[in-house]
């Protein structure tokens, strides 16, 4: 997913925008997790932790089990988080074929 964001929404001169794009992707993922938590309860072996308890366990080096919800590398998820791609493969190929010196 991150690779697609880099390919379609950033260029070398625009890398400073990458942070904002990745933040938008993180917000979309957080929204998806929140929506799924309301619809589907956690697995049997996963215990919900309050933030201070989680913070203490991480500080003490304890093992914390987390459930991973994958985000697929597909155009639908990107298009729901971003506008149309700013760059396409043709533009990148043209820049490589005709470098400016």
UniProtKB/TrEMBL annotation:
Pfam families found in the cross-reference section: Lon_lid (PF22667)
Against InterPro entries, the record matches this protein to: Lon_lid, P-loop_NTPase
Domain (Lon protease AAA+ ATPase lid): residue spans on this chain: 2-38
Any signal peptide, and if so, which residues?
Answer: none
Q: Which residues form a coiled coil?
A: none
**Name of the protein in its database record:** Lon protease AAA+ ATPase lid domain-containing protein
